[in-house]
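Record Biopolymer transport protein TolR, 150 aa.
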Amino acid sequence: MAMNVASSSGGGGRRGRRKPVVAEINVTPMVDVMLVLLIIFMVSAPMLTVGVPLDLPQTSAKSLENNDQKPIQMSVDIKGKVFINDTEIALNELIPKLKAITGARGGLEERIYLRADKKADYGTVAKVMGQLSGAGFKKLALVTEADQGS
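=>
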């Protein structure tokens, strides 16, 4: 009986013919994930802006220049509630809180943006402006929307 023995250098097995290891990164799945994340962030970013919902009056006045700091925004809504940067505050606590905020930033020279709903009580808006003026705040800007035309 003859026995067939395969030699190690023969062509019978797969051991000698391995493919070389590929050391490259497959970027296609990474690009897919990044595009999905980009779309998610683009859709969710406008929903993250919160604030006091106001219907601002429209004017054709030009806009003010912006500085690097986030401005102090005061709001008066349609019900007459007063807000400092999205935090509701009583009218009698307005000036002490505002002086505490501006003391750390720019003092009485800090610009204050006043946003008021166009259907808000004019008396409440006038009281807020009067208190700010009486306390020594000189830079008060009224915020409106750009006029869309007729």
